[in-house]
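A.,

Following up on our hallway conversation. C-alpha cells first:
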C-alpha cells in the first residue's frame, strides 16, 4: 500500500515541447500566449479610436512573438508566463501609440490618427530626414 501511495505522490514532470530546436514547457507557453492574445483582443475592442485592423493584427503578432521568445528564453512557471503574456499584450497598446505619434511628427498620417492621409509629394524627403543622424 505504501508503494502505491508513494507512486501517486510523486511529481509529474512538465510536458516539454520543441519548436525549431528550442524546448519549453507547454503549460507556460499556453498560459503566456493565451493571456497575451486575450489582452490584445480586449484592448482592440475597448479602444474608441478608429484604427486599421492591419495595425492591430501586426502588433498582436509582434506581442505574441515577444511573449513566445520570452517564455522560451526564461522558462517561467505557468503563473509567471501568464503575467508576462499579459504585460507584453498591454505593451502592444503603447507600441501603437508611439508609432502613431512618430508618424504624426513627420506628417505621414492624419492629426487624429484615424488613418494615413494622402501621400504628400515630399514624403521621400521626410523619410530621408528620419534617417539623418542628429
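Then the amino acids I'd put at each of the 134 positions:
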Amino acid at each position: 500500500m505504501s508503494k502505491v501511495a508513494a507512486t501517486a505522490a510523486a511529481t509529474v514532470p512538465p510536458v516539454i515541447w520543441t519548436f525549431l530546436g528550442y524546448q519549453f514547457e507547454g503549460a507556460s507557453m499556453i498560459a503566456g500566449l493565451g493571456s497575451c492574445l486575450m489582452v490584445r483582443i480586449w484592448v482592440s475592442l475597448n479602444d474608441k479610436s478608429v484604427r486599421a485592423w492591419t495595425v492591430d493584427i501586426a502588433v498582436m503578432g509582434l506581442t505574441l512573438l515577444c511573449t513566445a521568445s520570452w517564455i522560451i528564453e526564461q522558462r517561467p512557471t505557468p503563473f509567471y508566463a501568464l503575467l508576462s503574456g499579459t504585460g507584453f499584450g498591454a505593451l502592444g497598446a503603447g507600441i501603437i501609440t508611439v508609432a502613431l505619434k512618430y508618424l504624426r511628427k513627420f506628417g505621414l498620417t492624419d492629426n487624429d490618427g484615424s488613418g494615413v492621409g494622402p501621400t504628400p509629394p515630399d514624403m521621400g524627403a521626410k523619410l530621408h530626414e528620419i534617417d539623418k543622424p542628429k
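The CA atoms of residues 24 and 73 lie 8 Å apart. Curious whether your intuition agrees with the design.

B.
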